[in-house]
Design goal:
Elements lengths: L1 H24 L9 E8 L15 E9 L6 E3 L6 E4 L3 E5 L9 E3 L5 E2 L5 E2 L5 E7 L8 E8 L14 E7 L22 E8 L5 E12 L2 E8 L2 E4 L14 E3 L7 E5 L5 E3 L7 E7 L13 E6 L11 E7 L7 E6 L4 E6 L4 E7 L1 E3 L7 E4 L2 E3 L8 E3 L8 E4 L1 E3 L5 H34 L1
Parallel strand pairs: 11-20
Antiparallel strand pairs: 1-2, 3-30, 4-29, 5-6, 5-9, 5-25, 6-27, 7-8, 9-10, 9-24, 11-21, 12-13, 13-14, 14-15, 14-17, 15-16, 17-18, 19-20, 22-23, 23-24, 25-28, 26-27
Helix pairs in contact: 1-2
């Protein structure tokens, strides 16, 4: 009978209307992927096969398939908002102690919970890889999952290990008439420069270098830390550690020679023929008895310094120590690496966002809340790093909008409605035929 055929058409058209309506309802849902109803015709089979004259038994819905084409990227002001441009999903865990992802999403509207974990608006935890060290260059333990957590602890101070000074000493200077060096008398030295050093607790110390011309292209440099003279440790034999520097509370420390060639380029800063000098360990308690910190151990480097016929100038002055700092914000790069930034200028790697991809995205099981889960049809999850190995790149402070084309869905809604009405008309026509036969 034609009733069953028309009824199958009504059911299929109704399902198509439901799918289209769901797409329209989620036109503004972040990370939503539109669906389409897919159909197949139905024929009654027999031992002899399908007859050439068989009219068919209607239609059936074979699948409601989601379309994983890219949605538009919209930028926001929240660093934790993440979007994936390309293939892949964010991996989610059910709790903060999860060691394996249980769900996947394209909705990157993340936020912090009260414990500092990065979570979805449904409370699921975004999974990441732990850092191997404090710097990006140290890498991450990929494949070992943990819930991503933003560390709000204070940034640790870093003791100075290297100070770099690039300067020009005026070749027109003469040997000072007043000797020996008296740091209180500018006439006993030619030039002076200072920079701030940091100890293991982040305390500041002023390292001052007094430069005295001794004749020709030779100079002596005298080092003072917080006003106390420092005699560098002797140059050690090869493959041995530098010893302790000597603090000279009163008097003049032993200088370190500097020499320049005939073109004005520095030849060496110490007798080992290097432009750097390992000062040796400095017991800071001898400078300030109230300090209980690690010994200061740093190298002075004058690479690139010159002696030209121009005024004394400092062209570069750097050191690698840092004071303690407070967390000022986080940044996330296109590989998903998360960096904590501190007020002292330091940054620290705190994790990397993990991403997953599947051989068949359409085989993923729908969970709702723009989440999917692995299924037999999708294949096993392949985990990796954004921007590599066929994974899309991550953009911070942005979200992927729904990929629903609202205009196309409204047009399809009209088509689905006409299909439904046409199948209803088939039932009406069938009814009229039956009524005519019965009344004959």
């Amino acid at each position: 009978m034609g009733f069953s055929t028309a009824l199958s058409g009504l059911n299929a058209a109704s399902k198509d209307l439901q799918v289209t309506g769901n797409n329209i309802a989620n036109a503004n849902t972040t990370g939503f992927k539109e669906s389409r109803a897919e159909f197949a015709d139905v024929y009654a089979s027999s031992l002899g096969g399908v007859s050439k004259t068989q009219a068919g038994a209607g239609v059936r819905v074979t699948e409601v398939a989601q379309q994983f084409n890219q949605g538009n990227i919209e930028f926001t002001s929240n660093t934790l908002d993440l979007s994936l441009n390309g293939n892949g999903f964010f991996a989610l865990g059910s709790d903060s102690q999860a060691s394996t992802p249980t769900a996947y999403t394209r909705n990157g509207a993340f936020q912090l919970d009260k414990e500092g974990f990065v979570v979805t608006d449904q409370g699921q935890y975004i999974m990441g890889y732990s850092p191997n060290g404090d710097q990006l260059s140290d890498g991450f333990s990929q494949g070992v999952f943990e819930a991503l957590k933003i560390d709000t602890a204070q940034g640790l101070p870093t003791a100075t290990t290297r100070a770099t000074t690039t300067l020009n000493l005026d070749s027109r200077e003469v040997v000072p008439i007043i000797t020996p060096l008296d740091i209180a008398d500018p006439n006993s030295y030619n030039s002076m420069t200072s920079l701030t050093l940091f100890d293991s607790q982040g305390n500041t110390h002023i390292a001052s270098t007094y430069l005295v011309k001794t004749g020709g292209n030779q100079w002596d440099s005298y080092l003072y830390v917080d006003g106390k003279g420092i005699t560098p440790a002797p140059v050690p034999p090869p493959n041995t550690l530098v010893g302790a520097a000597t603090v000279v509370p009163v008097g003049i420390p032993v200088p370190t020679p500097m020499e320049f060639d005939s073109s004005g380029k520095i030849l060496f800063y110490d007798v080992a023929g290097k432009t750097s000098k390992e000062i040796g360990t400095i017991d800071l308690s001898q400078i300030d008895p109230n300090l209980i910190v690690d010994d200061l151990d740093f190298t002075m480097d004058y690479f690139g310094s010159t002696q030209f016929s121009s005024l004394f100038s400092i062209n570069d002055l750097q050191q690698d120590g840092l004071p303690a700092g407070n967390l000022t914000g986080i940044s996330i790069n296109d590989n998903g690496a998360v960096l904590a930034n501190y007020s002292n200028g330091a940054s620290k790697a705190i994790g990397q966002v993990s991403v997953a991809r599947f051989a068949n995205n359409q085989g993923l099981a729908k969970m709702g809340n723009t989440n999917w889960m692995e299924s037999a049809g999708s294949g096993a999850a392949i985990y990796g790093v954004a921007g590599t190995n066929n994974f899309g790149s991550i953009s911070s402070a942005s979200l992927e909008s729904s990929n629903v084309d609202l205009s196309a869905q409204l047009v399809h809604l009209i088509i689905a409605q006409q299909t439904y009405q046409a199948n209803a008309q088939t039932i009406t026509t069938e009814k009229t035929i039956m009524q005519t036969i019965l009344n004959a």
